[in-house]
Write a structure and sequence with these properties.
alpha/beta, 6 helices, about 200 residues, six-stranded mixed beta sheet
Length: about 200
């Protein structure tokens, strides 16, 4: 019985790993290329709470043995969650955000300062953290205006649960270009990509 319980911790990964990973990868790339557009996801993974299926699917597609991920302390202390991630992706869990290729934040309102994550360098801006930020909803919050590459004039999003200083943090992040972090806003509805090049203001 104990063995069965231990094994069950790791269930819920991709059923068709190669096909599912390719599908999710394309969806993530599409979301980053078209900021402000909600990219819908099928429920391809069943990770432990508080991770949702979209977060688990992105992790299963993008994480591997060469990547590292930062988790909030409350989540990093959960063996079921860390075990699921490491078993299904082979990623490494790190204690500091500036050491992470990816970060998963399940409490969007308590998002740490974006400067606390890896910013990349002028020569290698890709050596920065991509933050997967779970929000309550992608369309039930205050309106935000997006401008920049990949957007025709302006785009509008309304994610809920973001911290009060989110726009200010993103503005400072954009000013560090080509350095800075990229964000993926996720909910049960899907994904919105927010690359560091996007200007975000209150609408």
């Amino acid at each position: 019985m104990l063995q069965a319980e231990n094994t069950s911790v790791y269930l819920g990964g991709f059923v068709q790993p190669v096909f599912d990973a390719q599908t999710v990868f394309r969806q993530v790339m599409n979301a980053m290329a078209r900021p402000g557009t909600i990219t819908r996801f099928d429920a391809l993974t069943t990770p432990p709470a508080p991770l949702i299926s979209v977060t688990g699917s992105i992790a299963a597609a993008l994480f591997d043995h060469d990547t590292s991920v930062w988790l909030e302390p409350a989540q990093a202390s959960q063996p079921a969650l860390t075990g699921w991630l490491t078993f299904n992706t082979s990623t490494k869990i790190v204690a500091q955000g500036f050491d992470a290729d990816f970060a998963i934040v399940t409490d969007a309102g308590a998002l740490p300062s974006l400067e606390s994550f890896a910013q990349g360098t002028q020569e290698f801006p890709d050596r920065s953290t991509t933050i997967i930020l779970q929000v309550e909803s992608l369309d039930q919050g205050p309106r935000l205006v997006l401008e920049g590459p990949g957007i025709k004039e302006k785009a509008f999003i309304s994610p809920s649960g973001l911290p009060d200083q989110f726009c200010e943090q993103c503005s400072a992040n954009r000013q560090r270009f080509p350095r800075g972090v990229d964000l993926l806003l996720v909910s049960t509805q899907g994904l919105i990509g927010l690359p560091r090049t996007v200007k975000i203001s209150r609408g």
